[in-house]
Amino acid sequence: MRNIVLKRGSVAKYDDGSPFLVEAGELELRFTLPDPNGDYFLVAGKRKVAIPKDGRISLSVTEGTLNAAVKRYIHGKLVESYAVEPLEVMSVDGEVTAFPELSVLQRRAAELEKAIKDEASVRGKTIALQSDTFRKALEGQKDTLEMALAEQNKALHKLAVAFLRYAYTDYQRNVYVNTRSLSLEQFLTALGFSKEDFTAEELAAIKEEAKI
Q: How far apart are CA 201 and CA 203, in angstroms?
């Protein structure tokens, strides 16, 4: 079972970001609800599963990407929506395994960054290299790592655009958090971003209303 804490203004992530087995195709989840009032539902595509007060549900999954959101209703009216970290479900060595996407991407980026820093440290301490071949091998490895990190950063940037589009839409709709009527630029600044971090096309995509 994986635990998910719902927090206003952020994507709900799995408590353990490591890949895990999905036995018999049943995903066992337990949500920590931010407010006991109202009715909560996990919405994934056309499926809508009621979440009881204890937060425990079982969801059948197949290979592919599970994109879901938890929606809260009061008297039948939608008042809040929480994005849930995308989950990549695939068959590995004959077993169905789930990979929390945000956690996997962040972990890979951190590992690549550490590898580059470690290599830079080694290169700094190794002043005299005896072999030109060894030196060239290190250069090639550094280039490979930097290319991989660049690709990883592109993926994280693309994910950030998708998240901000959802978050900005939710902010504009959510009566509980939209108390300051922030502009898009102010909203980005509040989350630690800047307009200069994105292209005009990406800013337009973030501002475009998401279907949640």
A: 5
Does the reported pTM lie above 0.85? no
Residues in the chain: 212
- Number of Cβ within 10 Å of residue 14's Cβ equals 20
Helix (H) or strand (E) holding 118: helix 101-125
Q: Which are the contacts of 42, defined by CB distance < 8 A and separation ≥ 6?
A: 29, 31, 48, 49, 51, 57, 59, 68, 69, 70, 84
d(CA 160, CA 148): 18
Q: Over its length of 212 residues, how does the chain's per-residue pLDDT go in tens digits?
A: 899 999 877 788 888 878 888 888 899 999 999 888 999 999 988 899 999 999 999 998 888 888 889 999 999 999 988 888 888 888 877 787 877 766 655 555 555 566 666 666 665 555 444 555 655 655 666 666 667 667 767 777 887 888 788 788 877 776 555 555 778 888 888 777 888 888 999 999 888 876 55
DSSP string for 70-112:
EEEEETTEEEEEEEEEEEEEEEETTEEEEEEHHHHHHHHHHHH
> What tokens does 86 get?
């995308």
Contacts of the segment 147-152: beta carbons below 8 A, 24+ positions apart: 148/112, 149/109, 149/112, 149/113, 149/116, 152/105, 152/108, 152/109, 152/112
Cβ pair 21, 95 in contact under 8 A? yes
Given a contact cutoff of 8 angstroms between Cβ atoms, the answer to whether 80 and 3 are in contact is no
Closest CA to 209 of 150, 156, 168: 168
